[in-house]
Write a structure and sequence with these properties.
two-stranded antiparallel ribbon, disordered C terminus, 15 helices, Arc Repressor Mutant, subunit A, 308 residues
Length: 308
C-alpha cells in the first residue's frame, strides 16, 4: 500500500465520477509509492467496490481517458499468473492533479510525466478473451499518431460481438394465441382420421371445448390438434366406446343358487359337503344340470336347464 498514492487519489486526482474515484482508490491501494505496478482483475475490483462489471470497466476506461492511469511498460508482476488470466498492470500518474488540469499542463489525455513511464500519447491496449480471463496486449493506434489521418475513414469493418450475431441469426418466434373462432381441421387431419377410424367431428368438439375451458394458447394449433388425435386415438374408435362390456361368466360354488336348487336346499340349510362341491365342479366344467345329476347318481325330477 502506498500512502502517497492513496493521498493523491483522495485529494488531488482530477476525477469527479464516484465509481471512477472508488476504482482509483483501490488501484492506488496496491501500487508502490511512485504509483507503479497496480494490477487487479476486473473480478477483484467488482468484489472490492461492489459495483457491477460494466460499471468497473467503464470506470477504468474513464480513468484512462482522463490520463490518471496508463498501461504500464512493465507487465512482469502479472506474468506469474497463467497465460489468459493475466490482468493489465497499470501505472498511476501522480503528477496529474486538479491544478495541472486547470493550468493546462496536462494537455495529452494519455500522456505520462516521469521516469520510466510511457510518454507516447498514441499507445493503448487491446483486450481479447472473456471478462474474467483476458490477454492484454499493447499496440499502436496509428490513426491517433498521424494528424493527417485523423479525419480519414477507417477501412476496418466494425467488430460485432459474437453474441449479437447469434441473436440476429435466430428467427423470431410467433406469439402464442388462443384458438381462433374459425379454426377447422385441415386435409391432413381428415386423412388421418379416415385411415385410423377416428370420429373427427367428435374429436374436434372435444378439442375446442378443452381449449376454451383451459384458455390454452399455442403457436401452431394444427400441430396441436394432430397430437390430440394421436393421444385420443384409442378413445375415438367407434367400436371401442360403442361396444358394451361382456358379462363375466358365473362360477358355481357349493352354496350358489344353482347348486342349492338342484339339491333341493336353501340358504338356511346349505351344507358344505362333498356332494355340493362335486356338483359345483361338474357345472363349472360345462355340464348341464341333467348330466351332472346323472353322473352323481341323483334323480332328475325337473327338466334340464342350461347353466348361465
Amino acid at each position: 500500500m502506498s500512502v502517497q498514492a492513496l493521498s493523491w487519489a483522495l485529494d488531488e486526482a482530477p476525477v469527479a465520477d464516484k465509481a471512477a474515484r472508488l476504482v482509483l482508490l483501490y488501484m492506488a491501494d496496491v501500487c508502490d509509492r511512485r504509483g507503479r505496478g497496480s494490477w487487479q482483475s476486473v473480478t477483484t475490483l467488482v468484489k472490492r467496490t461492489r459495483y457491477g462489471r460494466t460499471a468497473v470497466k467503464a470506470a477504468i476506461a474513464e480513468l484512462r481517458d482522463l490520463g490518471v492511469i496508463v498501461v504500464s511498460d512493465d507487465q512482469s508482476p502479472a506474468m506469474k499468473l497463467p497465460r489468459g488470466r493475466r490482468p493489465i498492470v497499470y501505472d498511476l500518474c501522480l503528477d496529474v492533479t486538479w491544478d495541472s488540469v486547470a493550468g493546462g499542463r496536462n494537455t495529452t489525455p494519455m500522456g505520462v510525466v516521469g521516469e520510466g513511464r510511457n510518454t507516447t500519447p498514441c499507445e493503448g491496449h487491446i483486450s481479447t478473451g472473456s471478462d474474467s480471463d483476458r490477454v492484454e496486449k499493447t499496440a499502436l493506434r496509428g490513426s491517433e499518431c498521424d494528424p493527417n489521418t485523423k479525419d480519414k475513414p477507417t477501412t476496418n469493418p466494425p467488430v460485432v460481438p459474437q453474441g449479437d450475431q447469434q441473436q440476429e441469426s435466430k428467427p423470431a418466434k410467433s406469439p402464442r394465441t388462443e384458438l381462433p373462432d374459425g379454426w377447422m381441421p385441415n386435409k391432413s387431419h381428415r386423412v388421418y382420421a379416415a385411415e385410423h377410424g377416428v370420429d373427427l367431428e367428435r374429436s374436434t368438439r372435444r378439442f375446442r371445448r378443452n381449449a376454451r375451458d383451459n384458455r390454452t394458447r399455442s403457436r401452431n394449433w394444427d400441430s396441436k390438434f394432430q397430437s390430440w388425435l394421436e393421444d385420443e386415438l384409442p378413445n375415438n374408435r367407434p367400436d371401442t366406446y360403442a361396444q358394451e362390456p361382456k358379462p363375466k361368466p358365473h362360477t358355481h360354488t357349493w352354496k350358489c343358487r344353482h347348486v342349492l336348487a338342484l339339491l333341493h336346499r336353501d340358504e338356511d340349510n346349505a351344507e358344505y359337503d362333498d356332494l355340493s362341491c362335486h356338483l359345483a365342479s361338474l357345472l363349472n366344467q360345462g355340464k348341464t344340470s341333467g348330466e351332472a345329476l346323472k353322473e352323481l347318481g341323483l334323480p332328475n325330477e325337473d327338466e334340464e336347464w342350461e347353466i348361465a
